[in-house]
Amino acid sequence: MTQRSLGVVMNGVTGRMGLRQHLMRSVLAIRDQGGVELSDGSRVMLEPLLVGRRETRLAEIAAAHGLGRWTTDLDGALADDAYPIYFDAQLTSVREESLTAAIAAGRHIYTEKPTSDSLEGAVRLAHLAQDAGVKNGVVHDKLYLPGLLKLRRLVESGFFGRILSVRGEFGYWVFDGNGQAAQRPSWNYRSQDGGGIVSDMFCHWNYVLENLFGRVEAVTARTATHIPERWDENGERYDATADDAAYAIFELAGGVVAQLNSSWCVRVHRDELVEFQVDGTLGSAVAGLHRCVAQSHAHTPRPVWNPDLVETERYRDQWQKVPANAVMDNGFKAQWEQFVRHVVEDAPNPYDLFAGARGVQLAEAGLQSAASGCRVELKALT
């Protein structure tokens, strides 16, 4: 079997997402399985070059995973032709500059989101990559989750008939760091450091909505900073200046209305940390990270409102589980494989930097709506 190597500069692997999801569960998992299989049966083995700011931490990660190359010199890494792909999982505040340098070096781009901390910057990156002729992709991990793959199958089969609405709940209680350590880094709660749940989550909601139900055409949002003070990783109190909850209505092409709540100040009373309910004329479904249940029109019960009587039927029991019907791999790893095939054999990859820019656009529109109290329409990006 023919096998080739493909070098990947991985910037930001000392962070939680870059280390766990992208290095360990994607690139190294691909290495362990013998590479990415191409359409002709040959395989591509990924060779990572780790980049970051902390030498000690990079050396620890490299040693722990049997990797021979790491550096704090990004320019030097981008100048090495043995590494034609650049991946970025840094803080959003420094991502645009690094992506710009990688594009200028002629590297193919694969990046976390948001791609920039401004719509202007995100669009500029998309045009830079287009003009340079480099292939580019943005992480759209939630589309590869088992629950949403099952939901996509229902959508594509016509199960819902005409889709009417989408309702989503995302979030969990993030401790403030006083007494119990917070589950998220403190920068998430400081707007001056690029924090905020809108900038973090609306880019996700954009690609989920546009790829499953239709392009977002308008948004009405309300944000809040429910917890005004928190304690950082060193136990120091700080003012929380970023939004920690957002409540939004999204108007989609075709008339679908989506309502999504996002909060780091909510205690979970649902089966998974994110759930989407889709209602249509012929059926409904509820999908989470892994599970998906559905109810067709023929199996829909006929509830009658009577607050004086205790319910005798458990409504949750009247839904059917949607089977996987296939092996569903880690979503981050699956998209890495898709992007590698895009680079090597020009396989399709619709999730490019323009898609990433639309996510930034929705976040900016959400914040604008919250600040003004008005509905904000989104223009098509070119």
Quick structural summary:
The protein has 382 residues and is of the alpha/beta class. Helices cover 32% and strands 24% of the residues.
The end-to-end distance, rounded to whole angstroms, is 43 Å
Content of β-strand: 15-25%
Helical stretch count? 9
Structural class: alpha/beta
Residues in helix, %: 25-40%
Shape type: globular
Major β-sheet strand ordering = 17-16-15-14-8-13-12-9-18
> In sequence order, what are the helices and strands, one letter per element?
EHEEHEHEHEHEHEHEEEEEEEEEHHE
Any idea what the radius of gyration is?
Answer: 22 Å
Per DSSP E runs of 2 or more residues, the count of β-strands stands at 18
Mean pLDDT: 96
Main beta sheet strand tally, sense and closure: 9 strands, mixed
Unreliable parts: none
Structure description:
The protein is α/β, with parallel strands linked by helices. It has nine helices and 18 strands. The strands form three sheets. It has a nine-stranded mixed β-sheet with strand order 17-16-15-14-8-13-12-9-18. Strands 1, 2, 3, 4, 5, 6 and 7 form a seven-stranded mixed β-sheet that branches. Strands 10-11 form a two-stranded antiparallel sheet. α4 (92-104) links the parallel β5 and β6. The radius of gyration is 22 Å and the shape is globular. The two termini are 43 Å apart. The model has no long low-confidence stretch (mean pLDDT 96).
Which tags fit this structure?
nine-stranded mixed beta sheet, 9 helices, 32% helix, alpha/beta, single chain
